[in-house]
Fold this protein.
Amino acid sequence: MAPRPSWKGYLRLSLVSCPVRLYPATTRSERVSFHLLNPKTNNRIELRPHDAETGEEIPRDRLVRGYEFDKGRYVVVKDSEIEELRIESSETIDLARFIDEKEVDPIFFATPYYIAPEGKVADETFRVIHQAMIEERKAGVGRLVLSSREHPALLMPRHRGMLLMTLRAADEVRSDREYFADIENVTVDKEMVEMARRIIAQKGGAFDPEELTGDRYQAALRELVAGKVRGEKPKAGKAPAPSNVINLMDALKRSLAEESKAPAPSRKNARGPSQPRKRAPRRHSTR
């Protein structure tokens, strides 16, 4: 069953527009989740809203939103006032600029969504915009309002539909300068670089999304929970510690020798234990 749309509105190219629906492109439904319990009774804990000053418990349907404009002073904003607050991108994704997708630094990528036309009436306009973007090999830049904030977005053709990637604003991205400042800017040994290149070449291959399927930590969590359900005592796990590199040249030589005789990793092993085989969709459109 397809998920409910996260957003409904219009996709606009200049004076041309069509109604569209926005769907989340990812899911977290398979993740292991926990509840907070009373350690004495194992009953589930409920967190009830209450007045921080008087201690009075307040039903959730009576709570209101407040913005603290000064220490301990709030202005109340009603839900109806928020709903009436509409700007253009609340209802329309206006494709104001078109760029090469590769121009966007991946650090700006936030959350992916799928875009599909809203009903048969929108199909033709949607497909015309879709095909034009494919032939021009361009991605559209626009904005839309999601979860009480406006997001910059990158829109790309994807198969018969489109992929919308919300983007982080420039003021949300930290400069890497302070984090990399201590890395020395000196010339490294050419022979060691060449050996590292050979190791990289031996490990080279095409990108296969199936190799990313599976989460070994989540699998271990499921095994832990299943064992607890059966009344078994948990087994302590231990991750192998990386060896300390005393002589970099020697470590590179040994690594090169190991990689030259090691078989290519199988897809089954790459997916992790007891994980179903799933076909992950390719990110780029077929052009």
